[in-house]
Specification:
heterodimer; A: 301 residues; alpha/beta; 6-stranded mixed β-sheet; 4-stranded parallel β-sheet; 12 helices; 14% strand; globular; B: mainly alpha
Chain lengths: 301, 333
């Protein structure tokens, strides 16, 4: 009886595999039919970081539409908006008549629809800081600006290398990098874990991430974890909406309750503002420099 | 069967000792090792004593918040189950905790940074939301002078919950990416309140609700048998129902604004306590409050220690423990 069930199961699995293979082949064939322009002139960027990359290459004029979350550079203010990471508007994208849409790899449904519409796309995914330079070079190659892209990426690598070298000889204070929490309290504190571009930036800037052992991008830190991690420096990142109504001096006083934390006692709790800390694009160099200045105020002026 | 006075003393002593034990051991458990000797060493300044800070700032507020929230939700569960004559009723059945959730969602996504009496905007807004929901339910219940049938009250509650859920989803849809993440986390419930201020703010509300509930057990016994039977025995059913509704909703609102919607306490604890002490509300109500407090403290201790990197939201733990346990109870009988 059991064996019979298992055989049925195996048959179903094989049928599914065949079905899946058929669908996959069909998809690849569609992709192959999409016309690829070697030098796209109407680019839709659905990720703020990518918009910044293209502008940094000097190709901003070829960006035809951006996401709802784009604020930088100032030129994007006049461009049409076509939704965001979670809610891209296919209709608005099609209306732009793009010859290239740059999407994030998790936007599966959008990719399928672009395939069906015969619009060519470029998909990528970010994990760590070096991926930013890899993506810049890949996008540069795809849009026919590989030499400019290489110049941007190499410039970033050089600048980050300089910061790293300068910070390397300095002491590495234990640093807590907070990017989200409830206003006026230490509830729902989210800090950088030991993985991702925030962690990489912090390490380059000469800080030792207190949550380096937790291999996640975001760590929800309880009060106990905050006290036990004993940071020498606490850096809070404020950007976008969290900056809008915040009184920074009042907000920083929320940390005073943790009197035993070295950073609180030494008055080394500070806020850094700006969305360059959370947009993994060319401005991560500025962001890393600001972090270095916050951690080593004497060495980085 | 021994007289009610003896049973009451026995019940209160038993569950009281359990709560005392969990309150005393709760702060000793955590992800970091601390030395008790160092915690109470008066020769070290508090500001220098990380062990004492972990004990008094990180752990003790959580244990006390757990006691308060657990007691409030369990007692509210008892009252709603009796009032609605429905074993599936919970503190959320009438939409009070959805109203609280909506308030918190709005405070998070609109970035309201007002601080009211040292209470940050999110708990304040969520309590306001629960009061708003209570106002609507209360108005519905008072719309007819003879009181509402429980069926109408139940349907109104379910409808309001669904309506608030729709507004919550709408708020989340409009929210920023990072805010959506925070609202989802809020909905999982957490006791990491960070200081004593939010607990002190919720305490008088819960105590006032408990004082009102203390007058109710006899009426609840009779109401749970049926409104007509209760009226025949001289209970002012309408007044008792309104008092029960208001006090249980206040307790729920205070608990949810403090810790988020921690599920399953209000459903499971009353049933469990009834298995032990019987169905007399003079016993069930205080025993449920005491046992709810202990249960939530234990769940939070699990939430704080079981996950290697960081902590689980306590609402997930109560559901993971409470869900299967409740199913077992159902099948066993």
């Amino acid at each position: 009886m059991m064996a019979g069930k298992r055989r049925v199961g195996a048959l179903t699995a094989r049928a599914l595999a065949i079905l899946l293979a058929t669908i996959l082949t069909a998809t690849t064939q569609t992709t192959a039919m999409v016309q690829r322009s070697a030098r796209p002139e109407r680019i839709v960027s659905l990720i703020p970081a990518v918009t910044e990359m293209i502008f940094a290459m000097g190709d901003g004029a070829r960006v035809a539409a951006v996401s709802n979350y784009d604020h930088f550079p100032a030129e994007v203010a006049s461009l049409p908006r076509v939704g965001g990471l979670l809610d891209p508007s296919v209709e608005r994208i099609l209306a732009i008549k793009p010859d290239l849409v740059i999407v994030y790899a998790t936007q599966r449904e959008l990719i399928e629809r672009l395939d069906r519409a015969g619009i060519s796309y470029f998909s990528y995914q970010h994990k760590a800081l070096p991926d930013i330079m890899t993506t810049i070079r890949a996008i540069g190659t795809r849009i026919g600006s590989s030499s400019q892209a290489d110049a941007v990426a190499s410039g970033m690598e050089r600048s980050l290398g300089e910061i790293r070298t300068k910070a390397a000889g300095l002491p590495r204070p234990a640093t807590l990098l907070v990017f989200e929490r409830d206003p006026a309290s230490l509830r729902n504190v989210f800090a950088s874990g030991g993985y991702g571009f925030l962690h990489d930036m912090l390490e380059i800037a000469g800080g030792r991430n207190v949550f380096a052992d937790i291999k996640k991008q975001a760590v929800q830190a309880s009060t106990e974890m905050l006290i036990a991690s004993k940071p020498d420096v606490i850096i809070e990142l404020l950007y976008g909406d969290s900056l809008k109504n915040a009184n920074i001096a009042t907000e920083l006083r929320a940390w005073d309750v943790l009197a035993s934390v070295p950073a609180v006692r030494a008055h080394r709790v500070l806020a850094l503002t700006g969305d360059e800390f959370v947009v993994p694009g060319p401005r991560v160099v500025d962001a890393t420099r600001k972090l270095a200045r916050a951690i080593h105020p004497d060495a980085f002026r | 069967m021994p007289p009610i006075r003896t049973r009451l003393v026995l019940t209160l002593t038993g569950f009281g000792l359990l709560l005392a034990a969990t309150i005393l051991t709760g702060p000793l458990i955590g992800s970091t090792h601390i030395s008790l000797g160092r915690v109470f060493d008066r020769t070290i300044a508090f500001a220098d004593n990380a062990d004492a800070q972990i004990f008094f700032i990180a752990r003790l507020p959580r244990v006390l918040a757990g006691a308060l929230v657990g007691a409030a939700l369990a007692a509210a569960g008892v009252v709603f189950q009796a009032l609605l004559r429905n074993p599936l009723a919970t503190p959320d059945t009438l939409g009070v905790s959805s109203g609280a959730a909506l308030g918190a969602m709005l405070a998070i996504t609109l970035h309201i940074n007002l601080t009211v009496f040292g209470i940050s905007s999110i708990p304040a807004a969520s309590f306001a939301g629960s009061i708003g929901a209570l106002g609507i339910v209360y108005a519905l219940a008072s719309a007819r002078r003879r009181g509402l049938s429980t069926i109408v009250l139940l349907l109104a509650g379910v409808t309001m919950t669904a309506f608030f859920q729709a507004l919550i989803l709408f708020t989340q849809y409009l929210a920023d990416f990072a805010d959506t993440f925070r609202t989802v986390r809020w909905l999982m419930g957490t006791l990491d309140v960070g200081s004593y201020t939010p607990i002190l703010a919720a305490l008088p509300i819960v105590l006032a609700a408990f004082a009102m509930l203390a007058t109710l057990p006899r009426s609840l016994d009779l109401i749970s048998l049926g409104a007509d039977a209760a009226a025949a025995r001289g209970v002012d059913v309408v007044a008792a129902e309104r008092l029960a509704l208001a006090s249980a909703s206040l307790a729920t609102g205070a608990a949810v604004s403090l810790a988020g919607p921690v599920g399953f306490i209000g459903l499971v604890v009353p049933h469990l306590v009834r298995l032990i002490v019987g169905s007399d509300h003079r016993l069930v109500l205080p025993a449920s409050a005491l046992f709810g407090a202990s249960f939530l403290i234990v769940c939070d201790a699990v939430a704080r220690t079981v996950w290697p990197s960081g902590e689980l939201p306590v609402g997930i733990v109560t559901a993971l423990i409470g869900g299967p346990f409740f199913l077992w109870l159902l099948v066993r009988r």
